[in-house]
Amino acid sequence: MADVESGEIYFFYRPRVDVDHVRNLDDVQRLYLVLVPDDAEIARLLLVGKKRMPEILEGEPASTAREWMMIDMTGKPNAIGEALAPLEYETKTRGEQEQGEAIPVGEGRYAIVTGDGDSRLAYRLTRPQQPGQAQQELGILAEASYVISVRNPALDVPGFPDARPDYPETLREKFADKRWIDIDDSRLLDHANAQLLLIGAHDDLSEEDVSLTGTASLFETLGLSRREWPTEALKAGRFTEPSMQPESREPAGDLSKGGERGGRAARETASAAGIAHALKGVDLPCSKAELVRQAEANEAAQEIVEALNALPGQQYETMADIQHAFGEVR
After folding, report:
1. Backbone dihedral angles phi then psi of residue 329, each to the nearest 5 degrees
2. Rounded to whole angstroms, how far apart are CA atoms 328 and 192?
3. Where are the beta strands (DSSP E) in the chain?
4. CB–CB of 306/113 below 8 Å?
5. Is the Cα dihedral 117, 196, 34, 79 positive or negative?
6. 270: which of 30, 185, 188, 307 fits an S-S bond (Cβ 3.0–4.6 Å)?
7. Residues of the chain with pLDDT under 50
8. Please, which residues have CB within 8 angstroms of residue 106's CB and are 6 or more apart in sequence?
C-alpha cells in the first residue's frame, strides 16, 4: 500500500439543541470527524451522514456497511476549532437560538493509503484507550479501517447531498466518467462539499498494511481551552452535554499565534466567536449586504467588517452557512 497522508484524527458530536441530557444517538444532532494532516497548514471538518461510523460486520459483504461523509469546512486547524465552539444567533422563525459546543469523543492518529484496487482510511485512538458507551453509540472503535472513495461531483448519486465541491480542472479530470475514485491525491479532500463513501473493512489494523505511530494533541492542535471544553466523553467514554456559554469565555494565550480562544479578545477578531458576536440580532436568511450592515450596526471591529465584505455575494440561510463561507475565504 502507498501512503497518501497521515496525521491526527478527532471525533466530535454536537447534541440536539432541544436536549438537556444526552443519553444515546437519538439525542445527537451531528457527528463530526476532523482530519489534521502532518506538516500541513490546512485541516478538514467532515460531517458523517447518519451520525454514526459504518459498522464493520464480520462474515458479511462490506457493501452492507457503508456511509457517506462530506467535507463541511477546510481551513487552518484553529479555524476548525472555532467552528466547533458554541454559537448564539437570531432566526426569523424561532428568535434567539444557542448552539452548544461540539463535544470531543475521540482522538488518535490516522493514515490514508492506496493500493490493491482501493484506498483505505485507517485510524487508532489514543483517547479513550477503551471505547465506552458514547463511542459505541457513535460507531467509533479503538481502531478501524474503511475503504474510502470520492464521489464524482458531475454525476448524481441517490442518497447523497446535492452540494458540489469547486474542484479545479486538474482534479476534475481524475474522475473521467467514473462515479467513484480512490484517494490517490490528498487535494481531493481539501475542498468543501467533497463527498466520500466509507465502507467498513477491519476492526484490527494487523489485517491492514498500515503503520500508525505517535499521539494526538487535540487541544493544542485545534487551539481549544483544555480548562473549558468538556472531556468526560474523551476520558471515560460517557456522553455529556455542552457546558460553555456563547461569548462568555475568558481569553487565554496569544490569539495571534493560535492560542486558546475565547472572551472579549476573540469577539474583536475575525474568528468564529467574533463573527457570531458581530452578527448578533441578524435576521436569517439574509444577503451578504445585510450581514455587513448588521455588523456595522453592532459596531464590530474593522477586521470583522472586512472579512464579511470578502464573503461570496449569496443568500445565507443559517449561521453554519456563514461560518462555512468564512472558512473558504479566510
Report:
1. -95, -10
2. 8
3. 2-15, 28-37, 43-48, 66-75, 87-91, 95-99, 103-115, 118-127, 143-151, 180-182, 195-202, 286-287, 315-316
4. no
5. positive
6. 307
7. 61, 248-269
8. 9, 10, 11, 125, 127, 128, 131, 135, 140, 234
